[in-house]
Design brief:
The protein has 285 residues and is mostly helical. It has one domain. The chain contains nine helices and four strands, in the order ααβαβββαααααα. Strands 1-2-4-3 form a four-stranded mixed β-sheet, sandwiched between helices. It is elongated. The chain starts with a helix and ends in an 8-residue tail after the last helix. About 2% of the residues have low confidence.
Length: 285
């Protein structure tokens, strides 16, 4: 029974990872098609070189990113229990233990930056105060999974491709329109580019949010594998949902955002998946 649940967790995580890879490929293919239409083969080559150089320049240190978020390094003697928890999770994930940072903020949140070789985890004061130890372990395992899967790099590259695609298309459209109006340029080409300038940003945005959703689901599945307690993360997600909705939204429910517009899956979907991964009868959350 236990082995079957472990296989199910790993299968679900691999499925989400493959799905996100296909989505990134689709985004890159869309970017290439738009580049060929907008600027031609030579322009596409130049854009690819610029994109590669920009991607390489995104390799900034985890410590620098944490400082930007107001985080301070958390030495082991100040949080021995937390360090023991992170070290255990890192060993199970077959990763070097990431650095730990404390963010003195009431928001309930945790974050991962860097990659599997030099990652860092940040946790807020609000998360330490609100979450039970087993729930916090589930959240940190989720962030550890992002490091294991290289999600920070994947999302950086995804956003870079998206921004580059939209900016190149906008520039090409303005040049085509101005040339058609004042220089006797091709009106049909300007019209086609104008249509693309309206539709492509929406398609790009949908692909980016879809990639983000699948990475979150894959991280949930790996968190369940690392901790062996899927319902602990489910309980933490329920608390996070309650906290982030705020008292006003609880009194006056806001309209539900369609799943395809979300950068994160709906909490109910994530909880349902985690319950399905839990051996034995599911507990009430």
């Amino acid at each position: 029974m236990v082995r079957r649940h472990i296989r199910r967790r790993r299968h679900r995580g691999r499925f989400d990872a493959v799905k996100s890879g296909l989505l990134v490929f689709a985004l890159a293919a869309l970017s290439a098609i738009v580049g060929i239409i907008a600027v031609g083969g030579l322009g596409l080559l130049i854009g690819g070189l610029v994109l590669a150089f920009s991607a390489a320049s995104l390799q900034v240190s985890s410590a620098f990113v944490m400082r930007l978020h107001g985080a301070v390094s958390l030495p082991p003697h100040r949080a021995p229990t937390l360090y023991e928890m992170v070290t255990r999770l890192a060993q199970r994930a077959e990763l070097p233990a990431p650095s730990l940072y404390f963010i003195d903020h009431p928001a309930v949140n945790a974050m991962a930056v860097g990659d599997r070789r030099g990652g860092a985890l940040g946790v807020t004061r609000g998360a330490l105060e609100l979450l039970e130890p087993v729930e916090l372990e589930g959240v940190l395992a989720h962030e550890m999974a992002h490091l294991k899967h290289g999600d920070t790099q994947v999302m950086k590259l995804t956003h870079l491709i998206a921004r580059t695609t939209v900016k190149v298309l906008q520039l090409a459209t303005w040049l085509a329109v101005l040339t058609a109006l004042f220089g006797g340029g091709d009106i049909a080409r300007a019209s086609w580019l104008s249509l693309l300038a309206i539709t492509v940003p929406l398609l790009v945005s949908l692909l980016v949010t879809a990639v983000s959703r699948t990475r979150e689901l894959a991280a949930d599945a790996m968190s369940a594998e690392l901790t062996g307690h899927p319902l602990a993360l489910a309980s933490a997600l329920r608390k996070l949902e309650h906290y982030h909705r705020g008292w006003l939204c609880r009194l006056v429910p806001a309209p539900e955002v369609p799943d395809w517009l979300r950068s994160h899956p709906a909490t109910e979907e994530r909880i349902a998946r985690l319950k399905a991964l839990a051996p034995g009868p599911a507990m009430a959350l």
